[in-house]
Design goal:
Blueprint (H helix, E strand, L loop, with lengths): L9 H9 L7 H11 L4 E5 L5 H13 L9 E4 L3 H14 L7 E4 L5 H13 L3 E4 L1 H9 L10 E5 L1 H6 L3 H8 L7 E6 L4 H10 L4 E5 L8 E7 L5 H10 L7 E4 L3 H13 L4 E4 L5 H12 L5 E4 L14 E4 L6 H8 L9 E7 L4 H11 L42
Parallel strand pairs: 1-6, 1-7, 2-4, 2-5, 3-4, 5-6, 8-13, 9-11, 9-12, 10-11, 12-13
């Protein structure tokens, strides 16, 4: 379906065309009409399906010709990267209309705090915020949410995973009951259903490819031992000279700098990013990766959502994600908007069970990539982590004092 068929304002359609979009994605096609009809919604769609546009476009459409500067929409997200990304998309879509927005998130210095505080006090049509920072401003009385008509919870499953449930409840208590609530999530754990029953009223339900990566992803695994990973990583990158963007995920912050050093030493310039990096440095690295000045980015799961980079050629999981759902989020960074992409996951013997859970979730058997014999013997799918032999408990033989 073309955007022109979705009853959007001509000025908004002009901005959409200017950004190079013509056809709505499935989640946009289903969500936009329902949001324009003021229905509450729970939408489940994997990363990279255009769900940000699914709620941003109809909200901007409603805000056209709004007269005052009061806050109309509150969008709550789990990470600062996602807050920045959504704020940038709002800026792009509202290019030809008068709609203002502000991204509110922690991790910066005192100047960031004062800048966000001033912007909140002056008013913005749309606030995009992380829960912790927004709650701080609310408790200090720097922001008024009495006029909010639209509440959006994006990446709701991630916010619950990160322990934000109490913060979300506290923030919602500042809102008046008469507002439209939209919830978007990549997965649907039981905790989401409980939250839906608590805050949504007779919602429209949209479910598209739950917990499955985009169809354009070419999945592979590399079964290997930990000591083989570095050499194989160098080989994989050297064999793909035509690729201009690699995103490498690791589950441990301590491994980021280790992998970056390994790549740099091998002649592959790379940068790392994790929650330990200061906000201004993180933004600098993300901007460099977006502009293709940085070819290889090594990241923790903080980046598995909230980075909107077009045409990432390959995602490499240096280790298997702890949760099968995280595989979907990581791999969702490539093959976005119907493009093609490649995903490779290194699997050591102790992580074979995680691989099986991932395959069960996405309902495919991931093929094994072929490597030259020079890499030596590698584990197979039947490999198991060797169990330590349990010693039998030692019991002291009871003496028989009656024995003569």
């Amino acid at each position: 379906m073309k955007f022109t068929e979705l009853k959007l304002n001509e000025q908004l359609l002009e901005a959409i065309s200017y950004m190079g979009f013509e056809t709505a994605t499935p989640v946009q096609e289903k969500a936009i009409p329902a949001i324009l009809e003021n229905r509450d919604m729970i939408a489940c769609a994997q990363t990279g399906t255009g769900k940000t546009g699914a709620f941003v476009l109809p909200i901007i459409n409603k805000l056209i010709n709004k007269k005052d500067s009061s806050t109309d929409t509150l969008i709550i997200v789990p990470t600062r990267e996602l807050a920045i990304q959504i704020d940038e998309q709002i800026l792009g879509f509202s290019y030809f209309v008068s709609v203002t927005s502000i991204a509110v998130y922690g991790g910066g210095d005192g100047k960031d705090w004062d800048k966000q505080k001033t912007a909140l006090q002056n008013g913005a049509d749309i606030i995009v915020a992380t829960p912790g920072r927004l709650l701080s401003y609310l408790k200090l009385g720097f922001v008024n949410l009495d006029t909010v008509k639209h509440l959006v919870l994006d990446e709701a499953d991630r916010m619950l995973d990160m322990g934000f449930i109490d913060d979300l409840k506290a923030i919602i208590s500042f809102l008046k009951k008469d507002h439209q609530t939209l919830m978007f999530s990549a997965t649907m754990p039981k905790s989401i259903n409980q939250l839906v029953k608590r805050i949504l009223h007779n919602p429209v339900e949209i479910s598209l490819s739950v917990s499955k990566p985009a169809e354009g992803v070419n999945h592979n695994v590399c079964l290997c031992y930990d000591e083989q990973k570095g050499k194989i990583l160098n080989y994989i990158i050297s064999e793909r000279k035509q690729y201009d963007s690699f995103l490498i995920f690791t589950s441990a912050k301590s491994k980021v700098s280790e992998i970056v050093r390994l790549l740099n030493k091998s002649g592959f310039p790379a940068k790392g990013i994790s929650s330990d990096l200061k906000q201004d440095k993180r933004e600098e690295v993300v901007t460099g990766f977006k502009s293709k000045r940085i070819r290889i980015l090594v990241a923790t799961d903080v980046m598995s959502r909230g980075i909107d980079v077009k045409e990432i050629n390959m995602v490499i999981n240096y280790d298997v994600p702890h949760d099968a759902e995280d595989y979907v989020h990581r791999v969702g960074r490539t093959a976005r908007n119907n493009a093609a992409g490649e995903a490779l996951t290194f699997v050591n013997p102790r992580d074979m069970h995680k691989l099986r859970k991932t395959e069960q979730l996405i309902q495919i058997t991931i093929p094994e990539i072929q490597l030259p014999d020079e890499f030596g013997k590698r584990p197979n799918r039947e490999s198991r982590k060797l169990k330590t032999k349990t010693k039998r408990p030692y019991y002291r033989k009871k003496k028989n004092y009656n024995k003569k």
